[in-house]
Amino acid sequence: MTTTSAPNQATPPNRSRRIISISLAIIAALVVAFFVFANLYADWMWFAQLGFTTVLTTQWVARAVMFVVGFLAMAVPVWAAIQLAYRLRPVYARLSSQLDRYQEVVEPLRRLAMWGIPIFFGFFAGFAASAQWETTWLWANGVQTAVTDPQFGLDTGFYMFAMPFYAAVLGFASAVALVSLLLTAVVSYLYGSVRVGQRELRISKAARIQLAVLAGLYLLLQAASLWLDRYRTLVQPDDRITGPGYVGANAVIPGQTILAIAAVIVALAFFVTAFMGRWRYPLIATALLVVSAIVVGAAIPWAVNTFQVRPNQLSLESQYYQRNLDNTKAAYGIDKVEKENFEAATQAQAGQLRNDAASTAQLRIMDPAIIGPTVRQLEQYRSYYQFAEPLDVDRYQINGQSQDAVVSLRELNTSQLGDANTWQNSTLVYTHGYGMVAAAGNERTADGDPVFLERAIPGTGFLTDLNYEPRVYFGEQSPPYSIVGGPEGGEDIELDYPLGADGGTETRTTFRGDGGPSVGNVFNRLIYALKFQSEQILFSDYVNQDSQILYDRNPKERVQKVAPYLTLDSDPYPTVVDGRIKWVVDGYTTSANYPYSTGVSLSRAIADSNNPQPTYALDDINYIRNSVKATVDAYDGSVSLYAWDDQDPVLQTWQKIYPSTLKPWSEMSADLMSHVRYPTDLMKVQRSMLGVYHVDDARSFFQQDNRWATPNDPQNANELQPPYYLTMKMPSQDAPSYSMFTSFIPASQGGQARNVLTGYLAVDSNAGDAQGTKRDDYGRLRMLVIDAATTVPGPGQVQNTFDSDTNVSSQINILQQGQSQVLNGNLLTLPVGGGLLYVQPVFVQSSGDTKLPQLRRVLVAFGDKIAFENTLSEALDTLFGGDSGADTGDESVTPTDQGENPTTPTNPSVPAGDYAAALQEARDALNARQQALTSGDLAAFATQDARLTAAVQRLLELEAPSTGSTQNQGG
Questions:
Q1: Where is there biased composition of kind Polar residues (predicted)?
Q2: Global confidence as pTM
Q3: DSSP single-letter state for residue 848
């Protein structure tokens, strides 16, 4: 007898395991949610402490609204399309075996798919829409500019604020229509509404209506896009200009109009088909539309350009070139450049600089890009302090006189703490830098060092006399975060500054400002422990109920967070204003949609030898304004935004989006007004455009026979020469003013141009010193157009003359003997004496580990004459017939390195004739050695090299009794 065992009963689900799994999932979700909340709450506290919560809430609300709109705008139509296609399917349609198998697979997942697919596409669309919130808000708040474009007569605000929004909406709507159309086709095919077989396509009436209507809607959207493209041509490159030329205005734009109308007609054909049932007509119309697009969009413009424009380009394109000239100049603020034809004098005569003595008095001989190591060696005091590289420039009123200065802050460098770089030290003890260092730009000591106007710890100088706040809690080199503050009468734990040898005496302090969110309670400490991944914040006994956490301390970073719509200048600078150190940050409003304005790469335009090429979110722009001046307090980090260009329509629009975040510029104090300046990056962008757009008429623009370029830095041939700030007087000015200048040489292909000056541009950078009033001349661009009949050497040619002059090179060789290294400073150009004067300080430093650049010589050039002396005063006198008539900052200086003077020995027992003979021998040997090297005669080169060495040794011997080993003085 055979028995069959009963099948095993199904194992009941493990309820405990399910509960554990669900619990773990809930806990994981709560943990993730708390981390997200912690990040959002930390942002809220940061903005609330600064008083800019509206900036954060505006972004949150806008992103949330746009996400919901984008989600619904995609998910609802897609859901409706799928539902309609499924519900209107033929119930008794005979399906192929293959479709039966498809349905068997799809049917179990149908409900999930019919809801999941719309949600899936909705999430993607929501995130895409939230990223476009700024475009939408600019459209909703856009202002009129009262300036119309020359093609359609529309306000330029339409192009900058509305057109990007319309383009985004049309692109989004087209995506929705296309996705809905494709999903309708898929569902209709799976459920038999669309059948393909036996070389025949069968479509049910319901599917036909749905597909035809969706196709018609898609074509209507394309028609609207084609219509909008007519306006977009005004901001798109077209041959040599941005904006439509003759071909664009007479072929492309009319062609786009025709295609838009044709697309509407084809869309109507699809709507008719939805009810008439004939696909032939819309399909033929679609094919004709494609052919028309090729003919009208490509063939006709090509024919017009080839057979009509090219043979008559100037006559046909002139008005469009003029449009581009006028609008580009307006967009970059270079439409009011004051030009002056300049017949530069090239002959130097005695007393020639007497009328320009005020300009030469402020000539900067202390190069901020070179003397950084010197300032560090003299003013660092402890290794955990540091100075910026390069140093900044500013000007101050001292004893009633304006003084150009080289400045920097003594900031923290906690990486130099070594083994002492613990969490407690780097977070609680070493919290701030201390003091500003300022040196006169036009003066030097007898040793070639800077003449300090403010220095030391504790400070001494004119700023200390003003009793300013020297502590730097917020700077470019501040630690990522510090925890400061404590109860009144509590123990001071922050190192304020060291005193005495080996830190024998230290002063300590406690931060008393309002500089960061509170971490005085456990919850806030937990939030920031998570944010900075530091459990010490939570458990340290030094964190008390009055503690604050300071972070995001870089001034650019702080301004960028509270004004995210601004593009910030790459060179914030510190200045002492009303007893506080303030960082001044220039902010720009930009656009890429100004009609008929040629675009520029912002990153490439501002890159030079002092500023590596940065990265910007909006790099290609065709409109820029210095609309905001921002300040960041170095002690408490407070941010103030001033609407500097309150007439800028872009700024006015952003003010409507972020109300109450900007102050009127009239509230800037008189002291602050005296320290704001014309921004560097704006000048760089403007000079980049002026290379082509300095001409005024279409013919000159067409011929481009006078294109200019910014010269390369003579000390770095691969980078552009930066603009420089100087107090100087242009020929059309009555008195010197704090200005920024740059020069131009002829543009070339392949670097084959002559390096001669063709233009000199200066912009008045002095805003004045009265509250509520800007100087009329502030921002005035003055251009000297060098007369073509006069040859004025360019910076590269002047540098080559300096380097190749035998007298100069022989002295340079003497300066760099032994362990010394010669550094050429900034090559400055000054319009004085009826011509253009070049000035270059020459520094010497040790080639060893310890760098201490000291000013040893000054090179000057005027016309084809040069001079190379110990001081600027001596060099100018030598250049201009023994008495230049100029005043300089180093007139009263007698350098201690007279042993390096090429004309007078320092040892009085040595006859001057012996010294001169030894010097001449060194020069002759140097020239002979160079000739041997050029001719490839290595034997002669070795002989002359030995001769040069002997001559230099003789010079050293002649100087030795008085100066010791001069070869090491540079170090």
A1: 891-909
A2: 0.88
A3: S
Same domain, 93 and 150: yes
**d(Cα 610, Cα 391) in Å, to the nearest integer?**
11
pLDDT in tens, 641-681: 999 999 999 999 999 999 999 999 999 999 999 999 999 99
Torsions phi, psi for 464 (to 5 deg): -60, -35
Q: How far apart are CA 580 and CA 467, in angstroms?
A: 9
Distances (CA, A) of 585 to 103, 479, 782: 65, 20, 24
Answer yes or no: is pLDDT of 2 > 70: no
> How many Å apart are CA 229 and CA 245, to the nearest integer?
15
327-366 in b/e form (b: 16+ CB < 10 A) is: bbbbbbbbeebeeeebebbbebeeebbeebeebbbbbbbb
According to DSSP, the residues that pair with 589 across neighbouring strands are 625
309 C-beta neighbours (distance < 10 Å), count: 19
DSSP 3-state assignment of 51? coil
DSSP state of 902: S
Q: How many CB atoms lie within 10 A of CB 228?
A: 16
478 DSSP assignment: -
Helix extents (H) in 403-521: 423-424, 462-465
Domains: count for the chain: 3
| 375 and 234 fall within a common domain | no
Tell which residue, 35, 48, 56, 41, has the closest CA to residue 524: 41
Rounded-to-integer distance, Cα 775 and Cα 768, Å: 5
Identity at 33, one-letter amino acid code: A
Residue 440: in which H helix or E strand, if any?
strand 436-440
Backbone angles phi, psi at 181, to 5 degrees: -65, -45
- The whole-angstrom separation of Cα 609 and Cα 556 is 21
In a domain, residue 799? The reply is no
CA 462 remoteness from chain centre: 33
Phi, psi dihedral angles at 421 (to 5 degrees): -80, 65
Side-chain-side CA neighbours of residue 924 (13 Å): 9
CA distance 737 to 831: 13
List C-alpha distances in Å: 610 to 114, 334, 570, 755. Answer: 59, 24, 10, 21
Domain enclosing residue 282, as ranges: 58-315
Are residues 373 and 224 part of one domain?
no
Same structural domain, 371 and 284: no
Q: Which value, to the nearest 10 degrees, does the dihedral of the CA atoms of residues 621, 623, 624, 627 take?
A: -130
Query: Coil, helix or strand for 667?
Result: helix
Say if CB 375 and CB 389 are below 8 A apart. no
Inter-CA distances, 239 with 243, 379, 535, 688, 937, Å: 9, 56, 61, 19, 54
Q: What are the E-state strand segments in 847-965?
A: 854-862, 865-869
Cα→Cα distances 457→436, 617, 858, 920, Å: 10, 41, 32, 48
392 with 464, same domain? yes
pLDDT of residue 12: 53
For the residues 571-575, what does the mean pLDDT come to?
96
Statement to judge: residues 292 and 395 lie in one domain: no
523 shares a domain with 391: yes
Q: Is 498 helix (H, G, I), strand (E, B) or coil?
A: strand
What are 375-404's pLDDT values in tens digits? 999 998 888 999 999 999 999 999 889 999
Q: Is residue 861 part of a domain?
A: no
Kindly report the three-state secondary structure assignment for every residue of 729-752: CCCCCCCCEEEEEEEEEECCCCCC
Please check whether residues 249 and 163 belong to one and the same domain. yes
Which residue intervals of 51-142 are DSSP H helices? 53-87, 97-106, 110-130, 133-141
